[in-house]
Design goal:
This protein is α/β, with parallel strands linked by helices. Helices cover 40% and strands 18% of the residues. The site of thymidine-5'-diphospho-beta-D-xylose has 16 residues, from helix 6 and strand 8.
Length: 338
C-alpha cells in the first residue's frame, strides 16, 4: 500500500512509519518539524527506497491535496498533543488539530481515492467515574483546550463522513508510552528527571488514573486495522486500550524504583487546572478482531527506562532553549523556581 503518514517524525507516527516500511508499504511522511518532531526518529528508514519525507504542515491544503492524490491511505498522527501546552497556547491546537484535519478531509473528499485513518484520544470523553469505561459510541465531554480540539476534529470527521459518504477510521487510544516520546510527557519527563536525580513534579494528589499502552501495541493495532479498512461510509471508531489503569503516583514510584532513586524525589506540586481524574477505554471491538496488548506495563516501563538511560543522545536534543523556557513557565513556580 502507499501510505501518507502525517506527523511521521513524532513519537507514535515515527514508530508506525518505520513498521510500515518494514512491512513492505511505501510511506510518505509529511511532518511540519515542530518542537515535538525529531527527524532522528526515522533515521533508520531515511534512505529507504520506499520512504519519502516531505516537510510541510497538514494545514497547507494545496500540498496535502497533492500528496493525498498519490496514496491509498492517509494516517493522521500530526497534532499538538500536550495538555499543559494547550493551557498556555490554545490557538495552535485549533489550527493544527482541527483545521489540519479539515484540510485532510477536504483532500480525501476531492481525490476520493485515499482512505483516512485519524488518530484521536480517550480524552474526548473527559473524566470518567470509577468503574466506567468509555464505549466507542460514548458521548464527548472534553475538558481541556487540547481534548476539545481533538473532539472538534472528530466532529468534522463525522460531518464529512455523513455529508460526503466517506469511510473514515477513527482510532482512540489510551495514554501511550515507549522509546522516542517527547520528554514533556509524564513518563519520559519523570524517567529523564529520575535518571538525573532531580525532583519529579507530581500534579495534585497523584491519584489521577491513566490507562497505559506501549507504543509497540499501537503499531500492531494499526497494522491489523490497515488490513481491513471499512468500505462503508461513516466514522468508524476503534478504541485501543490496554486495560492497565494506574494512579500517577504508582507510576512515579515505579519509575523511581527502576531508575534506582528514592521515592522522596517525587514532589507534589500545584495541580493542572481542569485535570481529568480518570480515563478508561473499552476496547472490545479491537479485541474481537484478534488484537491483544503484547507488552505488560511492568515490562514496558522497565524497557522504557532502560531505553532513556541508554539513549541520552536521542532525547538530549529536546532539552533545548525552547523546552527550558516551557519548563520554567510550566514548573518554575511549582518546583520553587528549580
Ligand atoms: O509533570 C507532570 N506531572 C503529572 O503529574 C506531567 C507532565 C503530567 N502529570 C500527570 C497528568 C496526567 O494525569 O500525569 C498524567 C499524564 O500526563 P501527560 O503525559 O501530560 O498525558 P495526558 O494529559 O494524560 O494526555 C496524554 O494522553 C492522551 C497525551 O499527552 C495526549 O496527547 C493523549 O491524547
Amino acid at each position: 500500500m502507499r501510505v501518507l503518514v502525517t506527523g511521521g517524525c513524532g513519537f507514535i507516527g515515527s514508530h508506525v512509519a518505520r513498521a510500515l516500511v518494514a512491512a513492505g508499504h511505501a510511506v510518505t511522511n509529511l511532518d511540519a518539524l515542530t518542537y515535538a518532531s525529531n527527524p532522528a526518529n526515522v533515521a533508520s528508514i531515511a534512505a529507504h527506497p520506499r520512504y519519502r519525507f516531505v516537510e510541510g504542515n497538514i494545514c497547507d491544503s494545496a500540498l496535502v491535496r497533492e500528496l493525498v492524490a498519490d496514496v491509498d491511505v492517509v494516517i493522521n498522527f500530526a497534532a499538538e498533543t500536550h495538555v499543559d501546552r494547550s493551557l498556555l497556547d490554545p490557538g495552535i491546537f485549533v489550527r493544527t488539530d482541527v483545521e489540519g484535519v479539515v484540510s485532510l478531509l477536504e483532500a480525501v473528499r476531492a481525490t476520493r481515492t485515499a482512505r483516512l485513518v485519524h488518530m484521536s484520544t480517550d480524552e474526548v470523553f473527559g473524566s470518567l467515574a470509577p468503574g466506567v469505561e468509555a464505549e466507542e459510541e460514548g458521548q464527548f465531554a472534553p475538558t481541556s483546550p487540547y481534548s476539545a480540539s481533538k473532539a472538534a476534529a472528530e466532529l468534522q470527521v463525522r460531518a464529512y463522513a455523513e455529508t460526503y459518504e466517506l469511510p473514515v477510521t477513527v482510532l482512540r487510544s489510551c495514554n501511550v508510552y515507549g522509546p522516542n516520546q517527547h520528554i514533556e510527557k509524564f513518563i519520559p519527563l519523570f524517567i529523564t528527571r529520575a535518571l538525573a536525580g532531580v525532583p519529579l513534579p507530581l500534579y495534585g494528589d497523584g491519584l489521577q488514573e491513566r490507562e497505559w499502552i506501549h507504543v509497540d501495541d499501537i503499531v500492531a493495532a494499526v497494522g491489523l486495522l490497515l488490513e481491513h479498512l471499512p468500505g462503508a461510509a461513516g466514522a468508524h471508531a476503534i478504541h485501543i486500550g490496554s486495560g492497565e489503569r494506574l494512579p500517577n503516583r504508582v507510576v512515579a514510584e515505579a519509575i523511581c524504583r527502576l531508575a534506582g532513586r528514592d521515592e522522596s524525589l517525587i514532589q507534589r506540586v500545584e495541580d493542572r487546572p481542569g485535570h481529568d481524574r480518570r480515563y478508561a477505554l473499552n476496547s472490545r471491538r479491537l479485541r474481537s478482531r484478534g488484537w491483544r496488548p503484547a507488552v505488560r506495563f511492568e515490562e514496558g516501563l522497565e524497557r522504557t527506562v532502560r531505553w532513556y538511560a541508554g539513549n541520552a543522545d536521542a532525547w538530549a536534543a529536546a532539552e533545548n532553549p525552547e523546552f527550558r523556557e516551557y519548563f520554567a513557565r510550566q514548573y518554575g513556580e511549582r518546583l520553587g523556581a528549580v
